[in-house]
Amino acid sequence: xxxxxxxxxxxxxxLNVADYIEECIDSVVHQYLQELEIICVDAGSTxxxxxxxxxxxxxxxxxxxxxSSKKSYGCQINRGLDYASGEYxxxxxxxxWIEPGMYQYLYENGAPEELDYVASDFDLLYQLQNGxxxxxxxxxxxxxxxxxxxxILDSDExxxxxxxxxxxxxxxxxxxxxxxxxxxxxxxxGAAFQDMGFLQQVxxxxxxxxxxxxxxxxxxxxxxEASSKxxxxxxxxxxxxxxxxxxxxxxxxxxxxHRKYYYFTMSISFITKYDQILVRxxxxxxxxxxxxxxxxxxxxxxxxxxxxxxDESMYGGELWEKLMLLLTSQKAYSQMVMDREKKKGDCLQAxxxxxxxxxxxxxxxxxxxxxxxxxxxxxxxxxxxFCDNNPALAGNEKFGFPIIAASDLKHEADKKxxxxxxxxxxxxxxxxxxLLSMGFEGERIVDKIPAGILDG
Length: 456
What we know:
The protein is an alpha/beta fold. It has 15 helices and 15 strands. The strands form two sheets. Strands 1, 2, 3, 4, 5, 6, 7, 8 and 9 form a nine-stranded mixed beta sheet that branches. A six-stranded mixed beta sheet has the order 12-13-11-10-14-15, sandwiched between helices.
């Protein structure tokens, strides 16, 4: 390796992300690992993104600006991969950002062992009503598999991760490994799900990889323009799997365990995206955006089941039953999903009826209080703060909301005509009596959160 070779080439695909691009590119420029090649590939932004990138390129010689005439996430990443010269390559979506130690940590734990790729966990990033960021950790390994963190996984172990490791940007990839197997993204129009084909190729050819029990990547969830939220998602997935099957002919290379988990990935994509779009269509399962792709997925997954490539042991009982119902009857499956959604809606309406448009104070600063805060925030319920009987917490903040001392709760709540939501599972009766003794009216105490909000 030439001493001037970048350790990591970072590819940043952009299209009209002026509101986010500075936070994103700052997080790359200020990485602890300075031996970076920063490749910005813009697809014709018209909102000022290009001008911001040009300014950064003038200030940092590591930054190169490329232009894509085609509005295609796959084309943009491929252009960056063809240009890259680093030992490893990474992708950072330009409405997201990363912690400063990400590339140093992954490189130092991958390059010495010449691993095909190295990755870590990531966080979903939400912006709360008070403007603060809220992160939800997405862990890859749970239970008995937690010891998979930090050790080299072989090909068969990597095969089992085809469905669960579903995003390309939380890791770095050995550039020679990618080039030797001609691994690139599907150059289809738009920016939805092209990483599926990339990752299926990576899982097919990788002989050694590591994952770490750390989180560096912040994946923004509240961008309305995100293409993954559109109603065409089933069609995009169908096109991606068709590309894998017919153009890459990847299925012909797969041995037993890789083949099984390839079809497992297909079935999980089928269920997940079908549910999302069905809900957005308010249960209209006959809409062609669902019905057309459904027929193709049903055929592929049914054949895999009939050929004993998929079985209940891979799923768990409840998910397997969902899959069997989806393969059997679109109408019955859709009714089941919409019944579930109605129960969620009923829970929310029951809570809103108790609150009556008043701000809430969440009593309890534990994990249930956190979940309740996020539920309220997601449903546009005004949050005034937290309260807890632990005096050491009083005067601090939790996610930017003040933690009110129990002795001050009545005064603070009265100022806003606030409602108290009890988040605890045990001891609710004691806290309810405590609040009543302070002078709270019973109708301003929600001591029983509707079923389904905190417990599933």
